[in-house]
Amino acid sequence: MSSYTPSSSAGGVGSADSAAPRRNSKRPKYSKFTQQELPACKPILTPRWVISAFMLVSIVFIPIGVVSLLASRDVVEIIDRYETECVPQNFRNNRVSFIQSDANKTCTRRLTVTKHMKQPIYVYYQLDNFYQNHRRYVKSRSDSQLRDNSSWNDVSSCKPEDDSNGLPIVPCGLIAWSLFNDTYNFSLNNQQLAVNKREISWKSDRDHKFGNDVLPRNFQNGTLKGGKSLDPTVPLSQQEDLIVWMRTAALPTFRKLYGKIERDLQPNEVIHVTLENNYNTYSFNGKKKLVLSTTSWLGGKNDFLGIAYLTIGGLCFFLALSFTVVYLVKPRRLGDPSYLSWNRNPGGH
Amino acid sequence: MLSIFAETKGCLYMQITRLVKSVVSRTTLAIGDGANDVGMLQEADIGVGISGVEGMRAVMASDFAIAQFRFLERLLLVHGHWCYRRISMMICYFFYKNITFGFTLFWFEAYTSFSGQPAYNDWYMSSYNVFFTSLPVIALGVFDHDVSARLCMKYPLLYQEGVQNLLFNWVLILGWMFNGLLSSIIIYLLTANSITGQAFRKDGQVADYSILGVTMYTCVVWTVNCQMALSINYFTWIQHLFIWGSIALWYIFLVVYGSIPSTLSTTAYKVLVEACAPSILYWLTTLLVISALLPLLSYRAFQIRFRPMEHDRIQIQRRRSESLERDVAQSRLSESSETRNSSDLPAEVRIRIDSLKASSRRKNS
């Protein structure tokens, strides 16, 4: 292909023939927008920008990572897995039949406090391998019934837990039916540790999603009880355990808030937990754990965020250094027009 | 290959065009201004009609209409080059943003035992392509330039980028798709591992399904729009408004949608205002998606340094020659009127002038 000399005219589209009289000109009205000549900034990834961008990211991320990691290390957490040990020895081979029987399910556990725990200390129960995010499970509820007493009949979306013995269940659905029913009682030095079970759910749920005129009716009345029974005199907006449970969890391993302990715990104190091991997780090999945790400004104990920030900050720092080395060792005059491919091969392609 | 015909019958034009198309099997462009050109204009892949003395019939049968024959140069070199770049980038980016979004849903499914539960509320999913990621694509597809019109005309061989299909080949397409996959993996892993499990706020509350959905979606919207900001080279107020406005629109949408009664907003009821906004962890997790932008940034930095494309080189040269002109003007102002010869210019400026002179000599020879 022969070399091409650019034409000297830089005529813009719409520039009229200069010989024609102005009043007959069909030239469209000029505007910066239609001619695509708006004031613009045209950033280029020069070496300075690249290195500055990477350095900025690492300078911002590494301190955040350190701070997050420190916050997570400040949180004190006691986790106790109890579903296997709370089954008596003679039933260990047949745990499902144990949990479905009428045997005594009380179990005592001992928790030792390792570090000073400032109040409020949050008590959670943690379940593993429980898919609260399964599609059929999530659908199996009736929001209108939960909110409003007049819709007590609206159970169509709740199959198979919509009615029993011909009457609709309030609250209907699989989520409510499978309400967690283990209970925990804490004592320290033979004194009862009070657990505050109020305001453990979201305020918007209590005020707007669960009606204060809706009472449980015909609940857990069938042949198979899935979980806890509800007091039929207490309206749903005050049944905080139900409200917490009905906020379906995101992943198969999840924690839900059980209550708050509102006093400090000192190191080496031993807490005795009397728990009722009622909930059947044995049919699906689920795990049950009791968790006591403090919180920091960031939340609970999770090193992941801090480590992620440090890793990415470190990676950016490494990239900034390597780009600096590359630019210094092999400086290439970018913008040298002799590098344009048609200038390098004047003979053609 | 260029063929010129004159004073021939219209049907012959059409047959010649058909013959050329079948023999050469490349994209053909036909330009004409009269009624006898209509057949040829329609037969060719691209028909350019000239409106003028012979009437508007050619214009009505054409794909592009210009007023004078000499505007063809600008049509091809400026608009053709720009449109090629815009369309190729838009298609690649469109695949990228939908792959990023779709694969986060897929990774979440793995943790719901593949039951089909979507990670996001229905309304979020429907409005993804309509509200939160559509305007930046329009800004890319309609307004983006890589090189200004003046430089497109000055370096006409830049048009070869389109002819050689350098911006829309399988390597680039698969590269963008891979970038989408990578972004979705990073977003999912970072969000799922930071927010879930432990309490995500100081008051001990735990993140449930709706909060994970909101956090992941926020990260997706930020990542996808910031990738757009990294890919385009031309920022007017329109691009800024569309890109940052789309991100802001997502937060506004959350607030508005979250405040309509929970009969309609179901899982999104007050999710930003009550649950997410007071949680520092939510904001820090959003900031962490800068890591999803690092692959593209590193790749572009590497590419510009080691294997720059023609338009990259021209952009950098333009930047340097602009600063050179500024230096020359500056030195002229600071020098007195007697000492006007070039030997008194700063050494670096002298070197730059010499290299530009040499390159223009080379071009003209």
Describe it.
The complex is a heterodimer of chains A (349) and B (365). Chain A has 349 residues and is of the alpha+beta class. Chain A has helices spanning 47-74, 95-100, 135-139, 143-147, 174-177, 203-209, 240-246, 303-329, 341-344; strands at residues 77-81, 106-112, 121-128, 163-164, 167-168, 183-188, 191-193, 195-196, 254-261, 270-276, 287-293. In chain A, the strands form 3 sheets. In chain A, strands 1-11-3-9-8 form a 5-stranded antiparallel sheet. Chain A has a 4-stranded antiparallel sheet with strand order 2-10-6-7, with no helix packed on it. In chain A, strands 4-5 form a two-stranded antiparallel ribbon. Chain A starts with 46 loop residues before the first helix and ends in a 5-residue tail after the last helix. Residues 1-21 of chain A have low confidence and may be disordered. Chain B has 365 residues and is mostly helical. Chain B is built from 17 helices and 3 strands. Chain B has helices spanning 10-24, 38-43, 57-60, 71-110, 122-132, 134-143, 149-154, 160-163, 170-195, 209-231, 237-259, 262-265, 271-276, 280-287, 290-306, 310-334, 347-364, and strands spanning 29-32, 46-50, 64-66.
Residue-averaged pLDDT of chain A:
85
Oligomer: heterodimer
Most extensive interface between two protein chains, with residue counts: A-B, 94 and 95 residues
Average predicted confidence as pLDDT of chain B: 86
Task: From the alpha carbons, calculate the radius of gyration of chain A and give it in angstroms.
Answer: 34 Å
Percentage of β-strand residues of chain B: under 5%
Distance between the termini of chain A: 7 Å
**Spans where pLDDT lies below 50 across 5 or more residues of chain B:** 336-342
Low-confidence runs of chain A: 1-21
Number of strands of chain B: 3
Q: How are strands sequenced across the largest beta sheet of chain A?
A: 1-11-3-9-8
The termini of chain B sit apart by 24 Å
Helical amount of chain A: 25-40%
